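for the writeup, i need someone to sanity check this before i put it in the appendix. the sequnce is what the collaborator sent (i think, or maybe the updated version? ugh). structure was predicted straight from it, no edits. if anything looks off just tell me and ill rerun, i have time this weekend
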Amino acid sequence: MLLSNTEQMPGYRIVQHLGLVSGNTIRAKHFGRDIMASLKNIVGGEIKGYTELLTEARNQAIERMCHSAEQLGANAVINVRLSTSAVMSGAAELFAYGTAVVTEPLEGGQ
C-alpha cells in the first residue's frame, strides 16, 4: 500500500478516488510505565515507555486505515493525516485518516 501525506503520489497517476478511510486505536498507560515516567519526570529526559506506546499505536492506526483502503480496492492512500486526543484520564486515541485511491505508474516512471 502506497501512502502519501500530499494530494498526489509522486511517480503515479490517480485514476480513481474511492473516498475517506480511517483507522484508530485507543491505548491506556501501563502501571509499570507510569512508575518509570514519574521517575523521568524528576530527572528529565525521554520517557521511552510512552514513546514506544505511541509508536505502536500509530503503526496500528495506520495498519487499520490501510486495511480499510484495501477493502475498497485501493492501492494507495493520499492526504494521510494523524491525530491524537485524550479519551479519558490515562488513555489516548490515535487516529489515522486519508483518501483511498487507485493509482497507476506514470510512463517512464516507477
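Residues 2-105 form a domain with the Translation Initiation Factor IF3 fold (CATH 3.30.110.70). The first strand starts at residue 2 and ends at 3.
thx in advance!!
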